[in-house]
What does this fold into?
Amino acid sequence: MTECEGGDNSTITAVMQNWGSASIDWNIALDQNHGPHVGGCGTCNGTITVNSDTKQVTYNDQYRDIAHFSKFVPKGAVRIASTVRDTTGATQVDTVAFTNPDRSTVLVASNPGTTAKTFTVMCDGRSFDATLAPGAVATYHWH
It folds into this structure.
């Protein structure tokens, strides 16, 4: 996926859920007004925001997303299916899973909702429960 602008949600997760192999965030650093702006999306976020007045740096969602994927999903990892069964009709967690070259498994999960979500991860006859705060992303890695 190219030309990911880095919006308010996890663009990398969405790309990987749809069997993409890479995602590029074009806007590394923008100011508090989403600039410099040369056309196209006028409300795109940068990976970081640098306030041009105070010089304060804010690390945005896509910065966190890059950290989750780059640390735990190495070159050669293979995307595997992951599902979330939603029997309540409520917003659940978004997930994407991989088998790494060392045969370990990685699951990146995010909670786009406004309330905490508890879910069960099941793989190869083993399971564990996890809870994500609203807006949180977590990476689970096991052998």
